Amino acid sequence: MADDRPILMFDSGVGGLSVLGPTRALLPQASYVYVADNGGFPYGIRSEAEIAARVPALLGRLVERYRPRLVVIACNTASTIALAAVRSALDLPVVGTVPAIKPAAEQSTSRAIGVLGTDATVRQPYVDDLSARFATDCAVLRHGSARLVELAEARLRGQPTDPADYRAVMAGLLGQPGGDRIDTVVLACTHFPLVAEELAAAAGRPLRFVDGGPGIARRVAHLTQDQDWPAAPTGEAIFTAPLEVGAPLRAALAERGLGRIAIL
Ligand code: DGL
User: Fold this and answer.
1) Which tens digits make up the pLDDT trace of 90-100?
2) Average pLDDT in the 79-106 region?
3) Residue 244 burial class via C-beta count within 10 angstroms: exposed 0-12, middle 13-18, buried 19 and up
4) Could you tell me if the CB of 76 is within 6 A of ligand 1?
5) Closest ligand 1 atom number to CA of residue 42
6) Residue nearest to atom 9 of ligand 1 (CA)
7) Which mutation among 73, 118, 155 tests ligand 1's pocket best, with the greatest number of atoms within 8 A of CB?
8) In whole angstroms, how large is the CA radius of gyration of the chain?
9) Which of 11, 144, 170, 180 could make an S-S bridge to 16, C-beta 3.0–4.6 Å?
């Protein structure tokens, strides 16, 4: 019997598309509701209290409205601050996005890894905890960048971005004491894989980039493995505040199966 319930993915903006991509590749039979909280964007410069108040309440509303089978918080900032609160408020599986420090530590040969996230994410105790559990013998250097989130949003809207901006971001990480030893960089903000090529070019030397998208896709596939699917899967992008959706953004959404666009 067909089951029309969608998978709901949530981010402050277009970053969660880096999670939707690998998830759709594994589960093309699913319907997706992708929610961009552009009304609250950017999360990375907000306080813990603001995120903790906003995200569970908004997700509660979204779950009532779209009745998903599962929620993915495709945002490191929201997950590292509010995942536990969202899980206890919602009566369905919630998959979070946390910095991919474990796979990075497994792959690093120099035993020095970088964590590139939003300012709010890189200061979370969650990052200390992941480093202590999975990267004990690694130096873990962090850098927070709000600029890189803006660059990724601009890139998806087809706007030109300046290579010097990406170089400045990479210098903020690699220029720290010990940064020259980094061989693996965790993209700990879902916006950043969308500009991975630009970051690789800006690094000036070969680096391995790791993000949570593929792991989340596998987790979602595992949690839904015995379920039925819609007869005709759909994809919808929901924005929480009015915006101009130009042709490049519309195309980027359509490319990822989000053919319908609506405002909450
Ligand atoms: N994409 C989000 C993350 O993974 C946050 C971007 C922002 O709104 O600052 O952290």
Assistant:
1) 999 999 999 99
2) 97
3) exposed
4) yes
5) 8
6) 44
7) 118
8) 18
9) 11
Q: Quick check: pTM over 0.70?
A: yes
Give all domains of the chain, ordered by start, each with its CATH number: 7-97+214-263 (3.40.50.1860), 101-210 (3.40.50.1860)
pLDDT of residue 217: 98
Please tell me the predicted confidence (pLDDT) of residue 61: 97
Catalytic residues: 75, 189
Task: Give the residue among 120, 72, 76 at the shortest CA–CA distance from 101.
Answer: 76
Q: Which residue, 117, 125, 162, 102, is CA-closest to 48? A: 125
Query: Ligand 1: distance of its center to the CA of 150 in Å?
Result: 10
CA distance 126 to 41: 22
DSSP characters over 127-188: HHHHHHHH-TTSEEEEEE-HHHHHHHHHHHTT----HHHHHHHHHHHHTSTTGGG--EEEEE
Q: Does residue 42's CB lie within 6 angstroms of at least one atom of ligand 1?
A: yes
Does the C-beta of 224 come closer than 6 Å to ligand 1? no
Of ligand 1's atoms, which has the minimum distance to the CA of residue 121?
A: 10
CA distance 16 to 18: 5
CB 54 less than 6 A from any atom of ligand 1: no
